[in-house]
Design a protein that fits this description.
Strand content of chain B: 25-35%
Helix content of chain A: 25-40%
Helix content of chain B: 10-25%
Radius of gyration of chain A: 34 Å
Structural class of chain B: alpha/beta
Number of helices of chain B: 7
Number of helices of chain A: 10
Distance between the termini of chain A: 110 Å
Order of helices and strands of chain A: HEEEHEEEEHEEHEEHHHEEEEEEHHHE
Shape of chain B: elongated
Distance between the termini of chain B: 43 Å
Largest interface: A-B, 39 and 39 residues
Strand order of the largest sheet of chain B: 3-2-1-4-5-6-7
Number of strands of chain B: 17
Largest sheet of chain A: 6 strands, antiparallel
Number of strands of chain A: 18
Strand content of chain A: 25-35%
Oligomer: heterodimer
Chain lengths: ~425, ~350
């Protein structure tokens, strides 16, 4: 009798301890399991289901701290729309089905990403600072018998720190039917780059605002395209034009150098790229004289969009820092002639000048700047085919300058440089 | 868009078990939390975590900050720097996009190497390959956690060698903040000024110290003793870590070395076997040099350090008949007063 009682008791107590050990083990395994939760994004619907397949005996009662996130918990799933970005520490309160009274906690983290657009601050630049420049600028008007629209906007990376727009442009109507547009991108590392770009564009335009200079160009252009010139005269005329243009470019360099001396800083502090075109319409077509130093392109698109020509030599280094600037004396060597182009076309659909803030996101690499497909895509984008439905209307163009400014605020991950885009249409 | 790839090459040898690994784990979570708030980093930084012990493995493949979730850092036996470097080089070959005519490549990757010990294998060949093909194409920062590493060796493969020697909770926090700040400023300088190269944040000399790789260095032999135990109840593995300490001896001016218990920790078994060196080792330690006892981290048996005649270490409820979870045989266990040698791991 006694013996029987003892054995039974012993067996029972043994099975109970066994079970306790199993319960303990299963709970510990659940606690130790490392869950990788999909990251949530603020203001976007989120849903994540915990995989309980490996833990059939564990039941989740509720999740502590979940209210903070704006999510709810039901059927092993958390879902909802999280409000703000943060790293949340959630407490999973659970029990083992063979020990329902003992509540335990497993800790997990939930990351809610911010909308990247919300992270970029927009701090105004200091209006009292030397060489202050407005954060955006735009222009619309005529250019020869065509029209022109330009928008220049401070990039998010500069806005985030209250820095200045370093891009600039200048457009002028000159005498005898000549027109000029210059675009410049100040170097990020140069402390007065914003002034470098402003001064470069303004100076080159002022240089050609001279009847005498334009007359000299005019004479050579006539010799080139009147069909009477011999081959040797042709190259002489070309050389003459390039010499005049070179004088203008050298004048920009000297002006920048002088400004640096006057302000007691190095010319390197004014580092800026420079592209410009001089354009005039003749009876035989448009004559376009172009120049470029640095990595901003000038592109001419023909009337039926079947051909895109790059009108300048791009300085692109292997790495980002490999570009050249108008402030560098070494550009005035024997190869400077290759920086100029003389182009004559009967007509064209668009003539476009831009800074890398536009082509980095829209073309990715420089070699795509002569790819018609990419250009077609850009003009479709400008026509409103984009996430923001921002449209630039080239037909009803009363507000085209405002439209281009709005369009140029497009979102592109990792591309937040200053953006300047000029279109002659 | 050009990516800024960052590799964490983390020593996950057994000596890292316990607080160091927990701090690294938390540190990575904090780095991610902070980088998620920084627009430059959120959009451009990509992170990969590679662990090395006796073997190496990719703990988290290259991922952007938007989708990154902090991984569980495993431990293994051994410190094979060469395996770690080989894995890193393979990852760089596979992950990094080179600039071509058609495509904008990645920025120079940044490598943070964290180690707390001396390699248990010869890394000469791997370092040679690293220096020939990879060194100039990445920015490498080696961080020695404690003084027990070979600065000269780290200096031969990294641009910067730093010593992190003040490993309380707060200094870990400061240290990971420094790593975060360095990543942030670098991601900003590459996107904004298009400048290659790392911008290390200002170093707080209380936490981190720049070391001269040519500096004369005396190696403290064995800083840690790590024992590999198995739970009797659950048959799961755990590690017992002992830290070197000195006690005054009866002879004036002489101190006796001993190892004081740091703690017993559960480990992820599958990862432990994957990451451990497959060489057989016969390292021993005399039980008299070990001080302190603790309970089993798995089943709470009061004795975590019992040894069977097979050499296996396991937990024990108390004196009496018990079964060894290693060899499966049962025998009577009792307290032993004298010293005897037991198996230790590579550390």
């Amino acid at each position: 009798m006694m013996g029987k009682f003892f054995r039974k008791s012993a067996a029972e107590s043994k099975s109970k301890t066994m079970e306790q050990a199993v319960v303990f083990k299963e709970k510990e395994e659940f606690k130790d399991a490392h869950w990788i939760l999909k990251n949530a994004s603020a203001k976007q619907f989120y849903e994540f289901t915990f995989d309980m397949e490996d833990f059939p005996n564990i039941k989740i009662q509720n999740i502590g701290n979940i209210e903070e996130t704006g999510l709810t918990f039901e059927n092993n799933t958390i879902s909802g729309i999280p409000v703000t970005n943060n790293m949340y520490h959630l407490d999973i309160q659970f029990y083992h089905i063979h020990d329902q009274h003992q509540m335990e906690t497993k800790k997990i983290q939930l990351f809610v990403n911010a909308d990247p657009k919300d992270l970029w601050k927009n701090i105004p630049s200091d209006t009292n600072a030397a060489f202050y420049k407005p954060e955006e600028d735009s222009l619309k008007g005529s250019f020869s018998d065509k029209k022109i629209v330009v928008a220049s906007k401070r990039g998010r990376s500069h806005a985030h720190e209250g820095k200045f727009r370093e891009d600039d442009f200048a457009v002028n109507r000159l005498s005898d039917g000549w027109n000029i547009i210059a675009v410049s991108d100040g170097a990020g590392s140069a402390k007065a780059a914003r002034e470098g770009s402003r001064l470069a564009t303004e100076t080159i335009n002022r240089f050609f605002n001279s009847k005498e200079t334009l007359n000299q160009i005019e004479n050579n252009v006539s010799m080139l395209y009147n069909g009477q010139s011999f081959v040797e005269n042709e190259s002489e005329s070309k050389q003459n034009i390039i010499n005049i243009l070179s004088e203008g470019v050298l004048h920009v360099y000297q002006t920048l150098e002088k400004t640096a001396v006057e302000n007691d800083f190095s010319v390197n502090d004014l580092h800026a790229t420079l592209i410009f075109i001089l354009l005039k319409k003749y009876s035989f077509g448009y004559v376009v004289l172009s120049f470029g130093v640095g990595d901003c392109p000038i592109n001419l698109i023909n009337t039926d969009f079947s051909e895109v020509k790059l009108l300048n030599r791009m300085d692109v280094g292997e790495f980002g820092g490999g570009t050249r600037f108008i402030t560098m004396k070494e550009i005035f060597n024997d190869t400077i002639a290759s920086r100029f182009q003389i182009t004559c076309v009967e007509d064209f659909s668009y003539l476009v000048l831009m800074t890398d803030g536009i082509y980095d996101p829209k073309f990715t690499t420089e070699n795509k700047l002569e790819d018609t497909e990419n250009w077609k895509a850009l003009f479709e984008d400008l026509a409103g085919n984009n996430d923001d439905r921002a449209k630039v209307d080239f037909i009803n163009d009363e507000k085209i300058d405002e439209e281009l400014l709005i369009w140029s605020d497009f979102w592109s991950r990792g591309n937040h440089d200053d953006r300047t885009l000029a279109i002659i249409y | 868009m050009r990516r800024l790839p960052i590799y964490f090459l983390v020593d996950v040898s057994e000596s890292m078990v316990g607080e160091p690994i927990e701090q690294v784990q938390e540190g990575i979570a904090n780095i991610i939390r902070e980088l998620k708030k920084d627009p430059y980093s959120l959009e451009t930084v990509y992170i990969s975590v590679i662990g090395f012990a006796g073997e190496a493995e990719i703990i988290t493949p290259m991922q952007d900050i938007i989708s990154f979730y902090p991984p569980k850092i495993p431990v293994g036996s051994g410190t094979s720097l060469s395996q770690g470097l080989i894995k890193l080089m393979d990852c760089i070959d596979r992950d990094i996009v080179k600039t071509t005519y058609e495509r904008k490549g990645d920025w120079k990757p940044i490598v943070f190497l964290f180690t707390d010990g001396v390699p248990t294998d010869d890394a000469t060949k791997a370092i040679e390959r690293w220096n020939n093909k990879y060194n100039g194409k990445s920015n490498t920062i080696a961080v020695s956690i404690g003084e027990n590493t070979n600065y000269k060796l780290l200096g031969s493969l990294a641009d910067h060698v730093l010593l992190f020697n003040n490993s309380d909770e707060n200094s870990y926090k400061e240290f990971f903040k420094w790593v975060t700040d360095s990543i942030k400023t670098t991601s900003q300088s590459v996107t904004e000024a298009k400048k290659e190269g790392i911008n290390l944040s200002k170093i707080d000399s209380m936490i981190l110290e720049k070391v001269d790789p040519e500096m004369e260095q005396r190696f403290p032999d064995n800083n840690f003793v790590v024992l590999n135990g198995k739970c009797q109840e659950t048959e799961k593995l755990y590690l017992m870590k002992f830290k070197k300490a000195f006690a005054e001896s009866s002879i004036p001016g002489m101190a006796t070395r001993y190892y004081r218990l740091d703690g017993a920790y559960k480990i992820d078994e599958k990862a432990y076997y994957r990451l451990s060196s497959h060489q057989k080792t016969y390292l021993k330690i005399n039980i008299e040099e070990l001080d302190g006892g603790t309970s089993c981290p798995h089943c709470a048996n009061p004795i975590a350090l019992a040894t069977c005649s097979c050499g296996g270490i396991h937990c024990l409820r108390g004196e009496g008949y018990s079964k060894c979870p290693w060899c499966g045989t049962s025998d009577y266990y009792g307290f032993s007063g004298g010293g005897f040698d037991i198996n230790r791991t590579l550390g």
